[in-house]
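User: My instructor asked us to take a sequence, write out its structure as tokens, and then describe one feature of it. I'm not sure where to start. Here is the sequence I was given:
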Amino acid sequence: TTMSTITHDTTSSSKLRRDILTGRLPATADTHALHGSFVLR
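Assistant: Let's start with the prediction itself. The structure tokens for your sequence are:
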């Protein structure tokens, strides 16, 4: 794992989280739980 990979993953995660929280990307409770598990890793 390189620093650029970690940075890219973090940026993608932040964008995904923001899109879900703002309603731009609809998600079910199951999807929220799944994404939460990714964050905790």
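For the description part of your assignment, you could build on this observation: The two ends are 15 Å apart (CA to CA). Try explaining in your own words what that tells you about the chain.
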